[in-house]
Amino acid sequence: MKTAPLNIGVRTLFYMILAVFVVIQVYPIFWVIISSFKTQAEVMSSAPYSLPGSFYLGNYVSMLQNSQIPTYFMNSSIVAVLTLFFTIVIGAPAAFAIEKMKFGAGNQVLAFFLLGIMIPIFVTLLPMFQIYNALGLRNTFTSLILPQVGFNLPICIYLYSGFMRYVPNSLIESAHLDGAGSFKIFTSIILPMSKNTTITIITFNFIFIWNEFIFANTFMTSSSMKTLPLGLKDFVGLYGFTDWGATYAAITVTILPTLLIYFILNKSVIEGMAAGAVKS
Amino acid sequence: MTSNKRIEPWLFVLPALLVFLFTVIVPIIWSFTYSLYEWNGIGDKRFIGIDNYTRMLTDNVFITSFKNNLIFTGLGTVVQIVIGMTMAVILTSITKFRNFIKVIYFIPCVISSMAISQIFSKMLSINPEGVVNATLGAVGLDSLKAAFLSDPNLTLIIVTLVDAYKFCAIYMVIYYAAFLAISNDIIEASVIDGCNWWQQYIYMRFPLIKGIFFITVVMLVSGTLKGFDVPYILTNGGPGASSELVSTYMYKVAFNSVNYGYGSAIAVFLVIECLLIVTLIRKLISKVDVEA
């Protein structure tokens, strides 16, 4: 018995409020996806809330032919994979050192990283822009990967150290007695044990990276290097007023990967985003 | 051996520390230095002390964007708390489809602000007519039809609501998890004592999640003070400065007007503003906590 019993009237009212909220929340997404299957004639003449008459794929064809969306898709994927890789590869050992290596300054180092969660990224844009300009790094993947690794590290280290804190010290001590060095213990015991934390970090960070706008908008000006959010902006700028069908198709394509990952791994996505939010 | 042991942890944290220093900490210090200069990025820098900061006081666009930001923060915080809490309370009270509804409701959180802004820009369009105006027409409310995104009286409210739309589900998830974490014994005892549903919330559940609730207030205020994506993409701060926020104005000053000194000063202002308000809220909360 988890709740006090509710009478049937109140319960019905609850389901009705719920239905209204859920419809408002989901409709815009549903609408853009179904609208992407409308023919040009349907987009022009039928009411915008009507359903398409058939499963028309022409918008996708013209969107793929007339734009660099496939390039943007590729760029976004490269940035996401490399950012995640570097975040994990340098974040996990840091958390291990902080929690499990008898590290005198461990707590201070953790607190220092957690400062990063409070920092608005705007304050770093101009100096980074200057540095990248001087080093010729604008319009390179590095210019997007580096700052995103930097800003994702605090939450990554926070989540890893939250998990590793509860790994029993006796496990590490006995591995030491067996002659394993710290690096070996980290790679063959701690990292495999942290698998769930790694999955959580990867899934919710993937969503942030895939959706990232400000760094890309600031550092990527060459159209061959743009990521999907920026590319979508360009596409809408070019075709948004003439070809609405293709615009809907383009929007749908950009949101598909995150939706897919979300539906497969929604538990870790929700957990990660909620934990990340609470910490900030 | 001992000195080796002492150095070893540093080797593990060094890569992370270097990247973090280079991409987060150094640029902050750098920004602060820029803010004391007049500089367009190419010519000579001229040291002008705090002139960039005093300039904010007389810059009407900045003052407008600051006021707008307060509305964006106040309204956004209230709307997201109300929606998140309502959803969490209902989810906790129903028995069927809980997880399904939670997962569905969370969808906007995983979609980019770019996609969401583009969707709403199409839905709110007047010419050609978007879903909202077409629906208003279809149900006979033609008088409510409007060019929503070019009406300076509406744009600030719209960007606030679209931003709230994108993020409110996070608060539902947080409150819902907090409700579920309350020990069953407490709730069962209250049922035995004859608490009805409403009393259960007023006397047990709301007080028990007070800590989490205060955390979400801090999160929302600091998050909305830094709000950028939706206003920048959906209305670009316009028309005029009607939906300009501090962050979007800072971006324009820095990258469109290429006024690096003044832009950095606004960015530093944003950092200090966030830290001050968050500290203030934390103080208020701990005071309330002690008194309660």
General description of the model:
The complex is a heterodimer of chains A (280) and B (292). With 280 residues, chain A is mainly α. Chain A has 2 domains: 8-62, no CATH class; 68-279, MetI-like (MetI-like fold, Orthogonal Bundle). Helix content of chain A is 78%, strand content 0%. Chain A is globular, with a radius of gyration of 24 Å. The two termini of chain A are 35 Å apart. In chain B, strand 1 (37-38) and strand 2 (46-47) form a beta hairpin. The radius of gyration of chain B is 24 Å and the shape is globular. At the A-B interface, helix 1, helix 4, helix 5, helix 6 and helix 7 of A face helix 1, helix 3, helix 4, helix 5 and helix 6 of B.
At a glance:
The complex is a heterodimer of chains A (280) and B (292). Chain A has 280 residues and is an all-alpha fold.
Spatial separation of the terminal alpha carbons of chain B: 54 Å
Please estimate the helix content of chain A: over 70%
What is the CATH architecture term of chain B?
Orthogonal Bundle
Total number of strands of chain B: 2
Mean pLDDT of chain B: 90
* SSE-based structural type of chain A: mainly alpha
Family (chain A): Belongs to the binding-protein-dependent transport system permease family.
Transmembrane segments (chain A): 12-34, 72-97, 109-129, 141-160, 199-220, 245-265
Protein name (chain A): ABC transporter permease
GO biological process, one term (chain A): transmembrane transport
Topology:
The complex is a heterodimer of chains A (280) and B (292).
Chain A: H1 8-35, H2 40-45, H3 58-66, H4 69-100, H5 106-118, H6 122-135, H7 141-164, H8 169-177, H9 182-193, H10 195-211, H11 214-219, H12 228-239, H13 244-264, H14 266-279
Helix pairs in contact in A: 3-13, 4-5, 4-7, 4-10, 4-12, 5-7, 7-10, 10-14, 12-13
Chain B: H1 2-34, E1 37-38, E2 46-47, H2 51-58, H3 60-93, H4 98-105, H5 113-123, H6 131-138, H7 155-181, H8 184-192, H9 197-208, H10 210-225, H11 229-234, H12 246-256, H13 260-291
Antiparallel strand pairs in B: 1-2
Keywords (chain B): Cell membrane, Membrane, Transmembrane, Transmembrane helix, Transport
Protein name (chain B): ABC transporter permease
Transmembrane segments (chain B): 12-37, 70-91, 103-120, 154-182, 202-222, 260-281
